[in-house]
Design brief:
376 residues; alpha/beta; eight-stranded mixed β-sheet; three-stranded antiparallel β-sheet; 16% strand
C-alpha cells in the first residue's frame, strides 16, 4: 500500500500508465448560468500536517473500487454504504432476521483491508461463501460475522467498528441509515409487451435487472433517518467522493436520505463525482454519460459538484460509444463542476476501474481542483 507522506506528492509507477495527463474542462456556473459565489460554496479550512479526510459514498463493487484507490492516498477514510440490497445472502438475512443487508458493508470492509498477509487473509475470509444447498449455502462468512455482532451489541455502527478492528481496515465503514430500505423505481417498458407503459418496480434486485428504462427512484420508507456518524463524516470531510457504482441503486440512494443530502449540499468539503465506465444492463442501458449526470441533477437539484471524473477511453469510442464531449461538458457545467478526463479503467477490456490508475487520478484532482490542505 502506498501510504501518505506529508509534503510529498502521491507517487506510483502506474500513475503515468495512461500515456497522457488528465485533461480538464473547468466550469463554474450555476444551473441558471450565473456565476457561483463564495458564500454559497464555503470550503474546509486547511488542516496542518494531516492527510486528506475523505468520505466515499456508494455501494457494491463500485464503492469497493473507489475505496481500494482512496486507501492508497489516506488512512482518514470513511465509507458510507447503501442499505437497500434485497438479493442473495443479504436478502435472506434481512428477511429472516430483520437486519440491515450486510453485503455491501462487507465488500467495503474487504476493500479497506491492508495489503499485508493479515489484510489479504481476512479480506478473503469475509468474502468466502459457503457451498452446498443447505441453509448456509450461499451465505458469505463476513455477512454472518457482521449480523452476529449486530445481534450481540445492538448497535450497527459499533458492530462495524468492531469488525473493522478485527480486520485492521484502513478507514471506517458506516451504513447510510440504521433501518433497512427498499428501492422503488418508475420504469418505462418493464413489461416488454408494453414498451411505453410506466410501472413501479420495487426491490434493488428487481430494479437491477429490469428490461425497461429506469426513469426515477425513491426510497421506502420515505425520508429515512441517516446515521448521525455518516452525516458527520460528510460535513467534516475535505473531499466527498460519490460513485462509481450502480447508478440508481448504489449512487442515487444517498441523495434520497434528507439529512444526508442536506449535509452533502451544506458541507464545506469539495465534492467529486466518479462516472461509471459503461452503461449497466438493466439500470442504465442506453444511457449516455451526460444522461448519468442529468439523473443526479434531477434527483438532487440543489447539489453542486466540484469535479467529475470520466474515463477518457470510455467516452471516445469505448463502452459509451463516441460520446458528445461538448454535451458532457455542458452537463458538468450545469452542476458547477470541472470535467476531468483520464484513464482509470483496467487494461483487460472489462468495465472495471484499476485501483492504482484511479488512485493517481483522484490524487491529481485533490491537488489541482481546490487544494484544501498542505498535505502535498
Amino acid at each position: 500500500m502506498t501510504g501518505y507522506v506529508p509534503g510529498r506528492q502521491f507517487q506510483n509507477k502506474t500513475a503515468d500508465r495512461s500515456g497522457l495527463p488528465a485533461r480538464s474542462f473547468v466550469t463554474g456556473r450555476s444551473r441558471s448560468g450565473a456565476a457561483r459565489t463564495g458564500p454559497a460554496r464555503p470550503h474546509q479550512a486547511p488542516r496542518t500536517n494531516q492527510a486528506p479526510r475523505i468520505t466515499a459514498l456508494g455501494g457494491g463493487q463500485g464503492l469497493s473500487a473507489s475505496l481500494s484507490a482512496l486507501r492508497r492516498l489516506t488512512t482518514d477514510l470513511t465509507a458510507v454504504v447503501t442499505v437497500a440490497d434485497d438479493g442473495g445472502s443479504s436478502g435472506r438475512l434481512r428477511e429472516e432476521l430483520g437486519v440491515l443487508p450486510p453485503g455491501d458493508l462487507r465488500k467495503a470492509l474487504a476493500a479497506l483491508c491492508g495489503d499485508d498477509e493479515w489484510g489479504r487473509t481476512w479480506s478473503e475470509v469475509i468474502q468466502q461463501r459457503f457451498t452446498g444447498s443447505g441453509e448456509l449455502g450461499g451465505h458469505a462468512v463476513g455477512n454472518l460475522l457482521i449480523v452476529a455482532l449486530w445481534e450481540k451489541l445492538g448497535d450497527p455502527v459499533a458492530a462495524l467498528d468492531w469488525v473493522g478492528r478485527l480486520l485492521n481496515v484502513q478507514g471506517r465503514v458506516l451504513p447510510m441509515s440504521a433501518v433497512p430500505l427498499d428501492i422503488e423505481a418508475v420504469v418505462r417498458g418493464h413489461d416488454p409487451a408494453y414498451p411505453a407503459e410506466l410501472a413501479a418496480v420495487r426491490g434493488q434486485a428487481s430494479v437491477a435487472v429490469t428490461p425497461g428504462t429506469v426513469q426515477s427512484v425513491r426510497l421506502v420508507p420515505d425520508e429515512p433517518p441517516a446515521v448521525p456518524e455518516a452525516v458527520t463524516a460528510v460535513r467534516e470531510a475535505d473531499w466527498v467522493v460519490l460513485g462509481p457504482g450502480s447508478w440508481f441503486t448504489s449512487v442515487l440512494p444517498h441523495l434520497l436520505v434528507p439529512d444526508l443530502v442536506k449535509a452533502l449540499v451544506e458541507t464545506r468539503a469539495r465534492r467529486l463525482l466518479t462516472l461509471n465506465l459503461a452503461p449497466q444492463p438493466g439500470e442504465t442501458e442506453g444511457f449516455t454519460p451526460q444522461r448519468h449526470l442529468e439523473v443526479i441533477a434531477d434527483h438532487a437539484p440543489a447539489l453542486a459538484v466540484d469535479a467529475i471524473l470520466v474515463d477518457e477511453r470510455a467516452v471516445t469510442g469505448g463502452a459509451f460509444g463516441q460520446a458528445d464531449l461538448a454535451g458532457l461538458e455542458k452537463a458538468a457545467e450545469r452542476m458547477g463542476a470541472a470535467l476531468v478526463l483520464g484513464r482509470v479503467a483496467r487494461t483487460d477490456g472489462t468495465p472495471r476501474h484499476d485501483p492504482e490508475l484511479l488512485a493517481a487520478a483522484y490524487d491529481r484532482i485533490f491537488r489541482t481542483h481546490g487544494r484544501i490542505g498542505p498535505w502535498r
